[in-house]
Amino acid sequence: MKKLLAAITAALIMAGTLSLTPVAAVADDAPPASDIAVAPDAPFDVVATAADAAATVSWSAPEADGGAPITSYTVTTAPGGSTTTTDATSTTVTGLTNGTEYTFTVTATNEAGTSAASVASSAVTPLFGTPLSTSTPKITGTAVVGGTLTVGAGTWVSGTSLTYQWMADASPIEGATSTSFTITSAQRGAAISVAVTGTKTGYAALTRTSASTTRPPTVGAPTISGYAAYGLTLTAKPGTWTTGTSFAYQWYANGTTIPGATKATFKIGAAQKAKKISVKVTGTKSGFTTASKTSAATAKATTSSAAKVTGTAVVGAKLKATTGSWLSGTKLSYRWYADGVAISGATKSTYTVGSAQKSKKISVKITGEKSGYATVVRTSASTLKVAKVATPSISGAAKVTKTLTAKTGTWTAGTSFTYQWYANGKAISGAKKSTLKLSSAVVGKKITVKVTGKKSGHPTVSKTSKATAAVAYPSSTAPASEWNCPSWAPIKGNADSGIYHMPGQRYYNATKPEECFRTQSAAVAAGYRKAKV
């Protein structure tokens, strides 16, 4: 084996790849080779923490110090290559440029030499120690659906770039990234805030968030009901708002506040004639934005009068619409109704009641129009139910002792009647029945009867019959008593004898009449002959 190694060595020397250097003799007191120091291992776990124009770098000491104490560590900065030396396992590197990204490596040194460089730290960026802003963003505008909010970012370091994110109940609103935001129905009931983020090289990015607004309510569109005319009452209709909203009102004439007009209703006074009326509704609810909305204005307030129906509501009667006084130049139109339903073709100022309206209530609407002024509709009160009535007639002969009978004709079913008889237009005392027995007191007079019909819910109507012929005496009549004839028919007729007796004749007073005659010719016509004495 020794011969083989010697041969190999000789060959290498001859080839020039191996040279031999003389070695000094080793003293007898030299340390053994295992005790000779070498350079340490590299430090590890290098960690850097950025500061303002500086970074704190720390590390772990090498696992092997190379057999000699570590006397120093050197921290090398990249970029730039500046170094910092320390005997501790951490140090602060200063003189860095804020906003520049740096990494750091560390070497360890002992008496034998310097280690290899450590693995570089994670990159860090030194930043200015002051924040970009200490301001809190502020929102201006009214937080209502459809309202536009604007953010005031406050004071930031000059040159700071700002971005915005609007939020509803702290959740980002997609696409809402400008300095203003118009609230939509999707944000109804949610508190709105905005986050402002500032960035600038050399500074830490900073986000500042505004205070939240009150919650946007649902705001209705107020309208005005009623007619804008002097003396009439308008009513404010708030529209649809958030449930639980309380309302306040303010009425205006031509845009000017009307003092004291702060209720939901407003009666137009003389001062508001020819002015346009509007109302502002203000809604409040705890936790929500107080919001106000103003209605559209009416046309100019006009002058009108109540509509009235004159006439009696009976079939065949003519009713008339009474208009009263309206603003000069107002054009009036009419529409008649039966139980609230328009009557076809009934568009004049008068209406003759037809049988189709029997038992229905009649009313009329009068519409007044004038350019530039409010159109006003005035509706009359309804009549009583339309009654069917008839003109009564009289049956029977207009002769003394005869009985006349009033015939009512056809009236609304259920009508009750009362009667009054007249002689030559003068009421006959006590003649209040449906029949009248004629007496000599009405001879020569014409008889009429007035029938009055009544039924609940219908008009009470009186109708008078045509007059009879003048009441006359009949040619004959029954005796007034056993022995006497009435004075107007004094001739006694005795049926058994067939003889009639004149007043003053011998047997006149002794004769019991079976029939009395007004004239001798009447007696003769009845078959009697005159007594001789």
Question: Can I get a quick summary?
Answer:
The chain is mostly beta strands and 533 residues long. The chain has 2 helices and 40 strands. It is rod-shaped and about 205 Å long.
Note down, in words, how this protein is organized.
- Residues 74-92 have a biased composition (Low complexity).
- This is Fibronectin type III domain-containing protein.
- This protein is mostly beta strands and 533 residues long.
- Helices cover 4% and strands 35% of the residues.
- The chain is built from 2 helices and 40 strands.
- The strands form 11 sheets. It has a 5-stranded mixed β-sheet with strand order 36-39-37-38-40. It has a 4-stranded antiparallel β-sheet with strand order 4-3-6-7, with no helix packed on it.
- Residues 1-28 have low confidence and may be disordered.
